[in-house]
Amino acid sequence: xxxxxxxxxxxxxxxxxxxxxxxxxxxxxxxxxxxxxxxxxxxxxxxxxxxxxxxxxxxxxxxxxxxxxxxxxxxxxxxxxxxxxxxxxxxxxxxxxxxxxxxxxxxxxxxxxxxxxxxxxxxxxxxxxxxxxxxxxxxxxxxxxxxxxxxxxxxxxxxxxxxxxxxxxxxxxxxxxxxxxxxxxxxxxxxxxxxxxxxxxx
Length: 202
Known about the structure:
Blueprint: E1 7-12, E2 28-29, E3 32-33, H1 34-42, E4 48-52, H2 55-58, E5 65-66, H3 75-85, E6 90-95, H4 103-115, E7 120-125, E8 128-129, E9 133-137, H5 140-149, H6 155-159, E10 164-168, H7 188-201
Parallel strand pairs: 1-4, 1-6, 4-5, 7-10
Antiparallel strand pairs: 2-3, 6-9, 7-8, 7-9
Helix pairs in contact: 3-5
């Protein structure tokens, strides 16, 4: 029995990975492709897990993959795609390249979102809002699709058009998580650092 069958998870994996030079979603950490790792982190806590990206790249990994309706324009298109097809009221959206995210934090965020009256629950780190590790109600989908049609491409700009609750590290500090929670992997150097840190954590 899943923790929350009324919550769906979507892993965004449609990016070009230009700075990495190859598909970062398929890079393995501790022997597991990053996109698979993210799916496994979310799976115990949600009713379904779907990858948003090219099916020909990821279907062989045993994941359900949904084509992006707005390919090539960034993660906002992936989020809008996810919300347009989801049957769940609340939807966990995760980037594929968050090597330090934990299943405990995901469980905490879902519990927080289920208590919130806001359309979205979005964490904030020292870098600002982290909209690619957040939970959105399905009704955000129309607002995001409308923003895309107006030419909006930044997720943070689109989030400003909905009602969202911001959560900060002080609210999940009892989990003992570090400041690298939302660090993502964009370059070979980022990937090497993530591998080093994860080996040290074993």
